[in-house]
Every structure is written in structure tokens, then in C-alpha cells.
Specification:
Pfam families: Ppnp. Keywords: Glycosyltransferase, Transferase. By secondary structure, the protein is mainly β. It has a domain of about 60 residues: Sandwich (Jelly Rolls). About 0% of the residues lie in helices and about 65% in strands. It has a six-stranded antiparallel β-sheet with strand order 1-2-3-10-5-8, with no helix packed on it. Strands 4-9-6-7 form a four-stranded antiparallel β-sheet, with no helix packed on it. It starts with a strand and ends with a strand. The relative contact order is 0.31.
């Protein structure tokens, strides 16, 4: 079954899928600043656009296309979408 997620008044949307390789979402973000919380460890991979990610107690870091960021479980972090962007997340 495909799970549909929508956040921030529709500015962030994703489709979720679970299979033998794990749990995943593929999504899009409109240009803007977003704060997310994690309940499990995840890897976010930028697939198009430009963004910076700010983890707790760290500076904002830009990511290149197809570069991944490891996000620890149980934190709140920020994503700064510098333009409309797309991503893939893998959850552990």
C-alpha cells in the first residue's frame, strides 16, 4: 500500500512505501524553511533542487544532488529548500 503524506499546508508532500529493502518516502518540497522531527534514523537524499539541512548543534550544510544526510532518531531538524526540490528518504 502507498501512503500519502502532506505537511505545511501542502508545501511538502511524499509517497511512502515499505518493501523487502525497508521503508521509504519520495517527496517534494516547495521553496521554504521546514522543521521536522524524527522517530527513527533516516537518510535523506536530495534528488533535485537545492537545500541546506541544519541538525541540532550544527551549522546549516548545503547538499549536492544525490548527496545523503544521515538524520539521527529522536531529533528536530530544519530543511531550507532554496528552490523547489525533491528527495528520497530511507528509514531504519
Amino acid at each position: 500500500m502507498i501512503k500519502v503524506n502532506e505537511y505545511f499546508d501542502g508545501k511538502v508532500k511524499s509517497l511512502g512505501l515499505s518493501n523487502s529493502q525497508g521503508n521509504f518516502t519520495a517527496g517534494v518540497l516547495l521553496k521554504g524553511e521546514y522543521e521536522f522531527s524524527t522517530s527513527s534514523k533516516e537518510w535523506m537524499t536530495l534528488t533535485s533542487g537545492k537545500w541546506e539541512i541544519e541538525l541540532p548543534n550544527a551549522d546549516k550544510k548545503p547538499f549536492d544532488i544525490f548527496e545523503s544526510c544521515e538524520i539521527p532518531s529522536g531529533i528536530t531538524f530544519k530543511v531550507y529548500a532554496l528552490e523547489d526540490s525533491s528527495y528520497l528518504c530511507k528509514y531504519v
